[in-house]
Design goal:
- The protein is an alpha/beta fold.
- The protein is built from 13 helices and nine strands.
- Strands 1, 2, 3, 4, 5, 6, 7, 8 and 9 form a nine-stranded mixed sheet that branches.
- Helix 2 runs antiparallel to helix 11.
- The longest helix has 35 residues.
- The radius of gyration is 20 Å and the shape is globular.
- The N and C termini lie far apart (48 Å).
C-alpha cells in the first residue's frame, strides 16, 4: 500500500512539472517543491524561504521554489524515491540516508566523525566527497545541489540522566532509519528505533520510546521539554545536510537555471549554517528555562564507544583516509 501511495503521489506531482507554461524554454515557468520534516519555525526553513526569494529574483520568476515544511509531502524516504523517479521535488536529507545509495557517504553521519561544522564542511569540499556525489548522480539519479546546510549538533533527550554509554543500556531511542545513525546509537549504548520525526513526541509520551537524539533547532520547536527531563549533552553528530533533486528533473531545466539553482542553494546553505551556529546557546537556554536539566557527559567514554560502529560498518580505514585528506588528527 505504501508503494502504491508513493507511486500515485509521484504521478500527480510529475504531472505538475509539465502542466502549463510556454513551450519556449526561455519563458517556461518551472516549479521545484522543497520538502522537509522541519517545522515552520525552524531556522533552516527560514533559510529555504530566503533561497526561494533569491532564486525567483535571479531567474526573473522562471524558477519557483515552493517550501513544504512538516513533512507535508511525505517522509524523506518517500520523497527521495519520488525525486529519483523524476518528480519536481527537492529534499532536505543527510549523509546517513544517502548512505542507503552510496555506502561510504554514510560515514559523515557517524558518531564523533567531526568535532564541529567546519570539519564536515572540509570533507564536503574534498575529492572523496566529490566521488560520492558523482556516484549518486550517475548510478542513482540523485543530484546534490548543495551539502553545506547545518542544523547543529545532536544529543540525547531522556527521562533519566545519562552520563556514560552504560546509562543508555536498554533505552529505546528514536533516530532516523539509516545504518550510520542506527549503528552509532547502538554503539553508544541505546536501542535505536526508526520513527518519523513528527511521531517522536507522541512516541515518548506514550512510552513507546524512552527518548530520542536530536539537535536543538528541532528540540525546542517540538517542545520536547514537555515529555523528557534531561538533555544529555553528548553532541555525537554534527548534522550537516544536503538538498537533493532527481537527476532526471534537474536535466529538464535550461542550463542557466541549473547554474543559478546550484549557486544560490550553496550560498544560502553557507549563510544559514552560521545563523544556526549562532542560535545554539539561546536554544539551550530556552530548554533550561522550560525546566530541562543539561547533563555533562563523559565525552571520552562516548567517543571510545563509537568506534564499534565504525568497525561494524567497515568505516575505520575510511575515517583514517578522510582525516588525512582534510589534515585532521
Amino acid at each position: 500500500m505504501k508503494k502504491i501511495v508513493s507511486t500515485m503521489a509521484a504521478i500527480v506531482l510529475a504531472a505538475a512539472v509539465f502542466a502549463g507554461g510556454s513551450s519556449d524554454k526561455g519563458n517556461k515557468h518551472y516549479v521545484m517543491k522543497l520538502s522537509t520534516q522541519l517545522n515552520e519555525t525552524s531556522v533552516m526553513v527560514k533559510g529555504f524561504k530566503e533561497l526561494a526569494e533569491n532564486v525567483k529574483a535571479k531567474t526573473n520568476g522562471r524558477l519557483e521554489i515552493q517550501v513544504y515544511p512538516s513533512a507535508q509531502l511525505g517522509t524523506d524516504e518517500d520523497v527521495i524515491e519520488q525525486a529519483i523517479q523524476g518528480v519536481n521535488v527537492c529534499v532536505l536529507t543527510d549523509a546517513g540516508r544517502m548512505g542507503n545509495y552510496v555506502h561510504d557517504i554514510g560515514i559523515i553521519g557517524m558518531a564523533y566523525f567531526a568535532d564541529k561544522y567546519d570539519d564536515v564542511l572540509k570533507v564536503t569540499q574534498g575529492a572523496t566527497f566529490k566521488g560520492w556525489v558523482d556516484e549518486l548522480a550517475t548510478k542513482n539519479d540523485i543530484r546534490v545541489l548543495s551539502f553545506n546546510w547545518y542544523d547543529g549538533s545532536r544529543s540525547f533527550y531522556t527521562h533519566k540522566p545519562v552520563k556514560t554509554p552504560a546509562d543508555l543500556k536498554g533505552q529505546r531511542i528514536r533516530t532516523p532509519g539509516a545504518p550510520a545513525w542506527a549503528e552509532s546509537v547502538a554503539a553508544l549504548g541505546g536501542t535505536p528505533v526508526a520513527m518519523p520525526w513528527n511521531d517522536t513526541y507522541s512516541g515518548i509520551q506514550s512510552k513507546a520510546l524512552d527518548g530520542c537524539e536530536v539537535q536543538l533547532t528541532s528540540a525546542v520547536p517540538a517542545r520536547l521539554y514537555e515529555v523528557v527531563k534531561y538533555l544529555d549533552k553528548t553532541e555525537h553528530f554534527h548534522l550537516i545536510n544536503g538538498l537533493i533533486v532527481g537527476e532526471k528533473w534537474f536535466k529538464t531545466l535550461p542550463a542557466d537555471l541549473q547554474k543559478i539553482l546550484v549557486e544560490e542553494t550553496q550560498a544560502a546553505g553557507a549563510k544559514n549554517a552560521r545563523e544556526v551556529e549562532a542560535k545554539g546557546a539561546e536554544l539551550e537556554a530556552e530548554l533550561v528555562k522550560q525546566g530541562m536539566t543539561v547533563v555533562d557527559v563523559d565525552m571520552d567514554a562516548f567517543r571510545k564507544a563509537a568506534d564499534a560502529a565504525y568497525d561494524k560498518l567497515g568505516f575505520t580505514a575510511l575515517r583514517a583516509q578522510i582525516y588525512k585528506e582534510i589534515g585532521k588528527k
